[in-house]
Every structure is written in structure tokens, then in C-alpha cells.
Design brief:
The chain has about 170 residues and is α+β, with helices and mostly antiparallel strands. Helices cover about 15% and strands about 30% of the residues. Strands 1-2-3-7-6 form a five-stranded antiparallel sheet, with no helix packed on it. A four-stranded antiparallel sheet has the order 5-4-8-9, with no helix packed on it.
């Protein structure tokens, strides 16, 4: 009986030492931060590939799925204007500044066949979310595109209306 009491006391004492060591204020080891994903240089005439991150002025995006055209978008958004079709892109977006919303960072759809075309993004979800810097946000954006420009090989998604930060929609 006495050896059983000694064993229980030994276990309790060891547990107390372990707990004291955990509460000693020593910082826990943290894994090294993963290396930053590189931003690929790109333009309308030389867009990045699907899956590569592009960016301009602290705004970055990565096209991870392109659907051209997307007639099913009419179910969520209604029919596009006559002579146009819906094109949808799924993107991951990042920012490096505080206070911007997803709607403010909506990518612009461009066409290599008509550089004057700049498609305005229509969200299929709430895009008024305030984005925190350094985090990934996924958005589904749809664009009403003139029938003559609905060519998967010619459409690119850009960070804004400039000539840089563009990515193709097809793999």
C-alpha cells in the first residue's frame, strides 16, 4: 500500500513540474514563416498563367479558375444586356493596405482583341467585406462581355485598367 502511495505522489510531483515548466513564461517555438509568394511581372500583351500571382501597387490577385463563358451566371445575376454573355472568374485577392473592400479591388476584365474593352466586375457574393492586409480572400466575379469578344484565349483579368498585373483565364 505504501509503494502505491509513493507512486501516486511521484506522478503528481512530476505532473506539477511539467505544468510549472509550461507556465514559466518561455515563448513557444514558432515555425519559420513561409517565403512570400512572388508576384509575376505581366501585362495585357504578356499575361501571367492561371495560378500565378500578379499585382500592382499593393493589390494582388491570382486567377485559380476561369469559366468562359458562364451562361449559368444568369441564374444568380439575371440575363446580361442583349449582345453580351456572362464570363466568370474565380480569384484569390490580397492587399497590403488597411480599409479596402472587395468591391474596391474588383479586377477588370480586358481583351487582347480589343484593348479599349474594360469589363466591370459584378460580384456573385458580398463584396463589401473590409479586407485585412496579408490575408487571402476568394471572390467570384462575373462580367458582361460583348459576344464578339467572348474568346477564352483573348480574355485576361487585370488588377485595374492599366497595362500591368494581368492574368489569362484559361489553363
Amino acid at each position: 500500500m505504501r509503494s502505491r502511495s509513493t507512486a501516486v505522489l511521484s506522478i503528481l510531483a512530476a505532473s506539477g513540474l511539467l505544468l510549472a515548466g509550461c507556465a514559466s513564461g518561455q515563448p513557444a517555438a514558432t515555425p519559420e514563416a513561409a517565403p512570400a509568394v512572388s508576384v509575376v511581372e505581366s501585362s495585357i500583351t504578356e499575361p501571367a498563367a492561371v495560378g500565378e500571382r500578379v499585382g500592382v501597387d499593393g493589390t494582388q490577385l491570382e486567377v485559380w479558375s476561369g469559366i468562359v463563358p458562364d451562361d449559368a451566371a444568369a441564374g444568380a445575376l439575371g440575363d446580361p444586356e442583349p449582345g453580351t454573355r456572362w464570363v466568370t472568374a474565380n480569384v484569390a485577392q490580397w492587399v497590403s493596405v488597411e480599409g479596402l473592400t472587395g468591391a474596391e479591388l474588383a479586377p477588370v476584365l480586358r481583351s487582347t482583341a480589343d484593348e479599349a474593352f474594360a469589363g466591370v466586375a459584378v460580384p456573385q457574393q458580398n463584396a463589401d467585406v473590409v479586407l485585412k492586409p496579408g490575408r487571402t480572400y476568394t471572390f467570384v466575379w462575373s462580367y458582361a462581355v460583348p459576344e464578339a469578344l467572348v474568346d477564352p484565349e483573348a480574355l485576361v483579368l487585370c488588377v485595374d485598367t492599366g497595362d500591368e498585373g494581368c492574368s489569362v483565364l484559361t489553363k
